[in-house]
Design a protein that fits this description.
heterotrimer; A alpha+beta (about 270); B alpha+beta (about 180); C alpha+beta (about 750); B: about 180 residues; alpha+beta; Ubiquitin-like (UB roll); 2 domains; C: about 750 residues; Aldehyde Oxidoreductase, domain 4; six-stranded mixed sheet; globular
């Protein structure tokens, strides 16, 4: 196994140019599980831990190498809430937001926030940078649009810290669970509500019909909230797997989205 | 390849294969078998060590990527002649039964005590949620934590005081 | 006190005190050498090639690609087994390595020894295996219909015509539970240079491993020394052989020490589980709530090999009712042979599954009668002088059934439902922030568990122990396995109180050094290994007093009329003081055709009360508190006893709301800690315990075994509490969110 430990972004890009398709290692919380248990033996690994440029965390931009632990104690409430549910403290100290994008699991907790705020994924290679909307980056379960010679630099996000927002996640344990359903709701303005649902489709997804039902109404009635819940339930594409049935996921998604929205409403 | 790192304050070098985890290298190359290998996927915490100040699962750290790092393992916290307060509290409260999860829990609790000495009982539970224990049901562990953090844990229940448990029946204790 | 001539009034660290574990410091400092930490000079590493389907015909195995790899020293298949090709502690029906028919997913096909684990693993994968997949038998009813069973246990007792007016009847299911000891299977075999070997492997009873290993390895039993294992937990999962024979084969073939460690995924197929079960029950009572008739049909999923299933299903059958009187009992228990994962012993040994169904039946009967569920239990509770409703055995010894029920009910309830400002970590869903306090309903549920102590049905085992005086104190020798439960402390305490000496150490001997202590299971070692130690210590003390003509013994030596007459060194100058005792409990009967007889040595009982907060809309549960009142005989070590209670409750809680081995076509779908969820620190409930002490007439210092009960009725109590909160029938454990939500208004 060939290992590259670049000290800066240029080093990463050069290594990727020299070894397109190389495996990228950040926190190791996904890759090392495959190495340990599925005995994956990548030919070339590029270690990202030392690359300062990936660790930028500022209004408008979050570097791919920012750990869950930093997000958990950061200024963006929903991001902090979701980061707190990622694995254990040990996982949060190592795992990164970029890892969620690179793994592209439909259940990735961080992806719900990125979808809710319409984040753009910034990719870099020796030939330059490009920016993709989250929905163009995440193309399917465990599939994304990163090219073999690119590294995920980070995500461009709106300065969302002050928006009403919340995250919630269903699992059958009080901590350390992979989501059966997860949900992020943000309200950039009274006339703008965004709902992102995870683990209920091939990728994280937004529910535009449900959003439309509550836009412009900061104090929705019980009927309207019930309508919202129904539209979420009908606007997702869950499957049955070993963690839950399709029917439960659909039901729980509706309830979770309604409750999460309620936490974003005034009063 | 050769990896150099500082383990428990001492510079160490090890010859490692590319895919080997820090856990493997600690256990098999550096003869430090305190950290355990109960799941190898970051779900149990039995391999917990402190790496450059962070509590991590050493099974998920690529050893080669730990070049230059500072690592503290359970062996670095104390020994039989001068145990760390967390180690003493674990023994005193019966927090180690089979003991397999214990090294990871000791490292996790010592890290918490170092970094968040004001942790509330709920904070302690959350901080230790990544360390599975199959024997104790966690009560004794939480009582050990309460002792080293200098507070009682109302969530741990009165079993914490075995002598305070109500026992019924009387009569001579005879063989 | 420095003046050794002053007699201390009481021995330090004897029975009744919270003596700390002597292995505590090594465990907390990381120096305790578990099985997987052992190394030997020149050691090779073993790996296993396993079947990935549950049922198949093995067409062809080609090991040449593996043998050709550099660093590979041996690749062995069934044909390489030197002796008997089958193992098993009762019936030897499990092939050491796969024969033509593969009967379970994970069945070992070949084993490899190589210079390092990576090479061993790659070599195992390089073996070419040709399989013809066959349809697996996975359905219990179908297995019964096809007569695929290891044992049918039948109980008929009382007046066949007895009928009750009030009837409740239903079918219950409980999923397979994984013991999930934190330490995975690991072991080491070291050739002794004379054709024999020393073996360290995951075990709970070295002397039952020995004859199996000797037979399979074609060695005389004196050529194999099975060493006590330093285990990372057991809970029953180490009662059957896993890697031991493979290690022995590889070590004998290569002439070098061989080590093996299963990773968590392999561990899931590498040890036995708690049987999943399907149970049909019909309870009939009269209008006064007196149980008149109980019919039960219990189907236990054993997997393809017998192991301990014949004894497990006997326990299920004999404890099918719980601790209640009943005029007519008809129970049929079946241990069924399937292609599902292997099941065997786990904490409670077959008594847990029917406890879930029967205690649910009691609650439903109470509802049908309109009486309080605890009152119904009290009206039917058995006690000394009564007969067990299934086997007819008269209860001779203390069995405080009514007392544990009344005691658990008397424990004050925890604080009411949390208010709006509660920390989310105390709500269902925890840090996932799913459930506002206003969405919650609280429920309280009870369950009672009855179980045997020791083995039963004429399996009258014994335990040997040796106590030896040395100039520095006494040494207790035993082959009993310390799995973390604290036997090391208990036998030392018994020896101290009996000898009158505080200086007591425990030596765990291998099979060549001492006779069997029996299994560390069946809640038996405190009474069995402890009973043997007690008697050996009594003999040593008597011999010491006689030799020196004294009237008392302590750490200084022998005393007469308050004067020290012989130091320990003086005593030993005339030869060793060393007593070996084999302790047997009273004999038990073999059941007759109706399952009747004095089949059990003794019994124990506990009652649980669970308090839960449920979010009915999402089906999420947080267990707030579990209270227990338990019959313990006498408490020998309060600290350890509470550790067993809390740990047992956590396992029972796990089986109630999250622990389930998911199996599809015989293949485990969740063979990892990502998807087989164990309770975390945040899931642990508060525990309240009341210990009911009615000394056992035969246990050392009145003690009874106690470590299984905390798990047993915890599961039904938690489910009963969820049922009380939601009104859902919940006839299946573990309860899944969809079971709670189903039928609820969406």
């Amino acid at each position: 196994m060939h290992l590259v430990r670049p000290r800066d972004l240029d080093g990463v890009l050069d290594a990727l140019a020299a070894h397109p398709g190389a495996t990228l290692l950040a926190g190791g919380t996904d890759l090392m599980v495959e190495v340990n248990l599925q005995h994956r033996r990548p030919e070339t690994v590029i270690c990202l831990r030392r690359v300062e440029e990936l660790r930028t965390f500022e209004p408008g931009f979050i570097g791919a190498g920012v750990t869950w632990a930093r997000l958990e104690h950061g200024p963006i409430p929903a991001l902090a809430e979701l980061a707190r549910t990622v694995g254990s403290p040990q996982i949060r100290a190592a795992g990164t937001l970029g890892g969620n994008l690179g793994t592209a699991s439909p259940a990735g907790d961080g992806l719900t926030f990125l979808a809710a705020v319409d984040a753009h994924v910034v990719l870099a290679s020796t030939t330059g940078r490009r920016t993709l909307p989250w929905s163009a980056f995440l193309v399917g379960p465990k599939r994304h649009a990163r090219r073999d010679d690119e590294v995920i630099l980070g995500v461009e996000v709106p300065d969302a810290a002050a928006w009403p927002q919340a995250f919630a996640k269903v699992g059958v344990r009080q901590a350390m669970v992979i989501a059966i359903v997860n949900c992020c709701v943000v309200r950039p303005a009274d006339d703008d509500v965004r709902v992102a649902m995870g683990a209920v489709g091939p990728t994280v997804l937004r529910v535009p019909d449900a959003e439309a039902a509550v836009v412009g109404d900061p104090t929705p009635s019980a009927e309207r909230l019930a309508r919202f819940e129904t539209l979420v339930r009908d606007g997702i594409a869950p499957i049955t797997d070993h963690r839950a049935t399709e029917a439960y996921r659909r039901h729980a998604a509706g309830v979770l989205a309604r409750r999460t929205l309620e936490r974003c409403l005034p009063g | 390849m050769i990896v150099s790192l500082t383990v428990n304050g001492e510079p160490r070098t090890a010859e490692v294969a590319g895919f080997e985890s820090l856990l493997w290298v600690l256990r098999e190359r550096l003869d430090l078998r305190g950290a355990k290998d109960a799941c190898l996927q970051g779900e149990c915490g039995s391999c917990s060590v402190v790496l450059d100040g962070d509590l991590v699962c050493s099974c998920l750290v690529l050893a080669a990527d730990a070049e230059g790092a500072e690592v503290t393992t359970v062996e670095g916290l104390g020994d039989a002649t001068s145990p760390h307060p967390v180690q003493s509290a674990f023994v005193a409260h019966g927090a180690a039964q089979c003991g397999y999860c214990t090294p990871g829990l000791v490292v996790a609790l010592a890290h918490l005590r170092e970094n968040r000495p004001d942790a509330s009982p709920d904070d302690v539970r959350e901080a230790l949620a990544g360390n599975l224990c199959r024997c104790t049901g966690y009560g004794a562990i939480l009582r050990a934590a309460a002792e080293v953090l200098g507070r009682g844990d109302p969530g741990a229940g009165p079993v914490g005081d075995p002598d305070g448990t109500r026992s019924q029946g009387d009569g001579e204790v005879t063989p | 006190m420095s003046d050794v001539s002053v007699r201390r009034p009481e021995v330090a660290d004897g029975v009744g005190t919270s003596v700390l574990r002597p292995d505590g410091i090594p465990k907390v400092t990381g120096t305790f050498e578990f099985l997987g930490d052992q190394h030997a000079a020149g050691m090779l590493w073993g790996a296993t090639r396993r079947a990935e389907v549950a049922h198949a015909r093995l067409r062809h195995v080609d090991v040449t690609p593996a043998l050709a790899m550099a660093g590979v020293h041996a690749v062995l298949t069934l044909d390489d087994v030197p002796g008997h090709r089958y193992q098993g502690q009762k019936t030897t029906d499990e092939p050491v390595l796969a024969e033509e028919e593969i009967r379970r997913c994970g069945e070992a096909i070949a084993v490899v020894a190589a210079d390092d684990p990576e090479t061993a693993r790659r070599a195992a994968q390089a073996i070419v295996v040709e399989l013809e997949e066959l349809e697996p038998l996975t359905d219990l009813e179908e297995a019964l219909a096809r007569g695929e069973l290891f044992r049918h246990v039948r109980v008929r007792r009382g007046d066949p015509d007895a009928r009750g007016e009030v009837v409740v009847e239903d079918t219950y299911a409980i999923a397979t539970q994984d013991p999930a000891a934190l330490g995975t299977e690991a072991g080491l075999a070291v050739p002794d240079g004379n054709g024999g070997l020393d073996l360290w492997g995951p075990t709970q009873w070295t002397h039952v491993d020995l004859p199996q290993l000797a037979a399979c390895l074609a060695l005389d039993p004196t050529q194999v020394r099975v060493h006590p294992a330093r285990l990372g937990g057991a809970f029953g999962s180490r009662e059957d052989l896993s890697m031991q024979t493979h290690l022995g084969m590889l070590a004998l073939r290569t002439g070098r020490p061989v080590k093996m460690v299963y990773d968590r995924t392999e561990s899931f197929v590498g040890h036995v589980k708690r049987h999943g079960a399907l149970m049909h029950y019909r309870h009939e009572a009269d209008r006064d709530g007196r149980l008149v008739r109980v019919e039960a049909r219990l189907l236990l999923d054993s997997g393809p090999y017998e192991l301990t299933s014949a004894a497990v299903v006997a326990n299920s059958t004999y404890f099918a009712l719980g601790p209640y009187r009943c005029e007519r009992v008809e129970v049929d228990g079946y241990a069924l042979k399937t292609n599902n994962p292997l099941s065997g012993a786990m904490r409670g040994f077959g008594a847990n599954q029917p406890c879930f169904a029967a205690e649910t039946q009691m609650d439903r009967l109470a509802a049908a009668l309109g009486v309080d569920p605890l009152e119904l239990r009290l009206r039917n509770a058995i006690g000394p002088g009564d007969h067990l409703a299934t086997t007819g055995q008269r209860i001779e010894h203390p069995l405080p059934v009514a007392e544990v029920i009344r005691s658990v009910a008397a424990i004050p309830l925890p604080d009411p439902l949390p208010g709006p400002d509660v920390d989310p970590r105390r709500l269902p869903g925890g840090t996932g922030r799913t459930s506002p306090p206003g969405a919650l309903v609280r429920g309280v549920g009870y369950a009672v568990g009855l179980k045997n102590l020791q083995f039963s049905e004429g399996f009258d085992d014994d335990a040997e122990a040796r106590v030896e005086l040395t100039p520095d104190g006494a040494v207790v020798h035993t082959a009993a396995i310390e799995v973390g439960q604290g036997l090391v402390t208990i036998v030392a305490q018994i020896a101290r109180s009996t000898l009158g000496m505080s200086g007591v150490e425990v030596a765990f001997d291998h099979t060549g050094q001492i006779g069997s202590a029996g299994s560390t299971s069946a809640s038996r070692q405190t009474q069995m290994a402890g009973g043997a130690v007690l008697r050996a210590a009594q003999a040593v003390r008597a011999a010491a007093l006689e030799r020196a003509g004294g009237d008392d013994l302590d750490d200084a030596g022998v005393w007469r009329d308050g004067q020290l007459v012989a130091s320990l060194a003086d005593l030993l100058a005339d030869g060793p003081l060393d007593e070996r005792v084999c302790f047997k409990h009273r004999p038990t009967d073999v059941p007759d055709a109706d399952g009747q007889g004095d089949l059990h040595v003794d019994f124990c009982v506990a009652a649980h009360r669970a308090v839960v907060d449920v979010d009915p809309e999402l089906g999420l549960v947080r267990v707030v508190e579990v209270a227990i009142a338990q019959d313990v005989g006498r408490v020998l070590n309060p600290l350890q006893l509470h550790g067993q209670i809390e740990g047992g409750i956590a396992q029972g809680l796990g089986h109630a709301i999250m622990e389930e081995v998911l199996v599809e076509r015989g293949i485990i779908r969740n063979a990892s800690f990502t998807d087989y969820l164990l309770p975390t620190c945040l899931d642990a409930p508060e525990v309240e315990a009341v210990l009911v002490e009615e000394p056992s007439p035969w246990g050392p210092y009145g003690a009874k075994g106690m470590a299984e009960l905390p798990t047993m009725s915890a599961t039904p109590a938690v489910v009963a509490a969820i049922r009380a909160a939601t009104g859902q029938p919940l006839t299946r454990a573990p309860v899944r969110p969809e079971d709670i939500v189903r039928g609820a208004p969406a």
